[in-house]
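Researcher: I'd like a candidate sequence for this fold, 291 residues long. If you have to choose between options at a position, lean toward the conservative one.
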C-alpha cells in the first residue's frame, strides 16, 4: 500500500468509530491496483472454469473457508450455498472427523463450511443463511480477540491485519454460545492469531492449550477442533511438529489453507480447505472446487 493510501485508510479508520460492515469498504483497504488485478484474475478464472465440473468425481469432502459475510455479501453467500447443494451435501466437522477415523469409504460428495477469525458477521449474516439452508458450519476463533471492545481495545483491533488498520468487530462469548446452541461448531484459531511456525514449541503449545481451555470454559463444552492461522504448510505452521502438538493437546482435527479435496485415508490433522469469498460468482466456486 502506498503511503498516501495508507494514510487515507488510517485517517478514515481513526475518524470513524464504526467497524467495517461491507465488502466494498473492506476492499478499499486493499493495495493499489488490487482491484484491477482482481478483475483480470476473475476473467482468467471465468475462462478456466468453462468445462469444469465439481461433480466430475465423488468420494470426497471439500472445505470452502470464509472469513466474513459482510452486509453486501449476504445474497452471494445464500446463492453459493444453493449452488453447492446441487453437487453434494453439507456435513459437520465432527461427522467428517468420524468418517476419516472410521476408515470407511466416503460415499458421495460433501461440503464442510468453515469460517476463520470470529468476526461479528459470522453471527449477524452467515448464521441465519446457514440455518435457512439447514447447514452447519465450523467457526474458528482467536480467543484473545473474542469480546474485544471497539473503543477500549481499539488499538489491538486495528492491529489485527498486517496490511492496514481495519477496524473489525469480533464475536463475544455470549454470541459464540448462541452459535453453538444453534448447532454450529466453535473451534480454536489460537489465542493471538499466531503464525505457529514462528513460535517455539513451548509457545506453540501454550497457544493450542490455552485457547482450547478458554473455549471450553466459555462454552461449557470441550473444544475438539483447531485451525492453524494463515495455514500454509511449511510457511505458517511446522508440518513435522504442529499436527503432533495439536493431537497432544487433544484436538481431533487440524485445518490448514492448502487447497484440495479430503478423501478416505487422509489425516484429520492436515485438512485441506479452499479459500472462498462470499461475493464470488459460481464460476469461481466451480473452478476452485474442481481443482
Ligand atoms: Zn485467521
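Model: Candidate sequence:
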Amino acid at each position: 500500500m502506498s503511503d498516501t493510501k495508507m494514510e487515507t485508510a488510517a485517517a478514515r479508520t481513526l475518524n470513524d468509530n464504526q467497524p467495517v460492515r461491507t465488502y466494498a469498504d473492506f476492499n478499499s483497504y486493499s493495495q493499489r491496483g488490487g482491484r484491477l488485478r482482481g478483475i483480470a484474475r476473475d476473467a482468467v478464472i471465468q475462462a478456466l472454469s468453462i468445462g469444469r465440473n465439481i461433480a466430475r468425481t465423488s468420494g470426497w469432502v471439500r472445505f470452502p473457508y470464509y472469513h466474513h459475510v459482510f452486509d453486501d455479501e449476504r445474497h452471494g453467500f445464500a446463492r453459493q450455498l444453493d449452488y453447492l447443494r446441487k453437487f453434494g451435501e453439507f456435513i459437520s466437522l465432527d461427522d467428517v472427523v468420524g468418517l476419516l477415523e472410521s476408515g470407511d469409504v466416503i460415499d458421495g460428495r460433501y461440503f464442510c463450511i468453515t469460517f476463520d477469525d470470529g468476526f461479528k458477521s459470522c453471527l449477524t449474516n452467515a448464521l441465519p443463511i446457514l440455518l435457512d439452508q439447514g447447514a452447519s458450519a465450523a467457526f474458528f476463533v482467536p480467543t484473545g480477540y473474542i469480546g474485544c471492545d471497539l473503543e477500549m481495545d481499539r488499538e489491538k483491533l486495528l492491529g489485527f491485519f498486517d496490511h492496514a488498520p481495519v477496524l473489525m468487530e469480533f464475536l463475544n462469548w455470549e454470541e459464540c454460545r448462541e452459535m453453538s446452541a444453534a448447532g454450529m461448531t466453535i473451534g480454536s484459531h489460537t489465542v493471538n492469531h499466531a503464525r505457529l511456525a514462528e513460535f517455539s514449541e513451548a509457545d506453540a503449545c501454550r497457544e493450542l492449550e490455552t485457547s482450547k481451555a478458554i473455549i471450553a470454559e466459555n462454552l461449557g463444552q470441550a473444544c475438539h477442533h483447531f485451525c492453524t492461522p494463515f495455514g500454509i504448510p511449511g510457511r505458517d505452521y511446522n508440518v513435522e511438529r504442529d499436527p503432533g502438538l495439536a493431537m497432544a493437546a487433544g484436538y481431533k482435527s487440524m485445518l490448514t489453507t492448502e487447497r484440495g479435496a479430503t478423501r478416505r485415508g487422509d489425516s484429520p490433522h492436515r485438512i485441506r480447505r479452499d479459500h472462498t469469498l462470499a461475493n464470488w460468482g459460481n464460476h469461481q466456486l466451480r473452478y476452485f472446487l474442481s481443482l
